[in-house]
Hints:
- By secondary structure, the protein is mainly α.
- 76% of the residues lie in helices and 0% in strands.
- Helix 1 (13-33) runs antiparallel to helix 4 (126-150).
- The longest helix has 39 residues, at 82-120.
- The radius of gyration is 18 Å and the shape is elongated.
- The termini are far apart.
Amino acid sequence: MEGLASDKPAPASGSAAAAVVAAAAALLEKSAKLSTKHWAGAAGALDQAYALRLRSEELIEDDVEAYLGFVDAKRAAKGLNGGARKQAVGAARELTIDVPILILGAASQVVELAEQLTQRGNPNLIADEAIAALLASAAAEACVTLIACNVEDPSDDMRLAEARMLALGARVRALSLRPEVS
């Protein structure tokens, strides 16, 4: 798969993933608000969902800035070759990895919060919580794709390996929250 490592910038798709995480967190805000009679910890869950939504909204902008910074760095490095080009573009490339890692972390936290609300919150909202977890899990998978495109050597990057494990864990947990349908 060719991506940024081959100097072909991927669009700021992390922004879409961050927006999905923000939407999932917003679902959990609703669930937490409607769970206060069912769970004493619902107020804390509401605060956490709110913070995750706000952070994910910030990450939308951070991803756009990282992408545009990479494009600017590549333009500035035009005409450079080898190590000089790599050095000129390196820091900007790292941001195109760091931001999706942060989005993935927020997505994983949304899945964890959805689990808590499913177990302790309003039982009438299990579908909303499961959907929030599934959305966040999909965003986590999207981030893995971005990270894989943006690292220089996908076969030898620990960040990518860790991201894959985190996304896989989020997916397994999210799938386990789906209600049984008879």
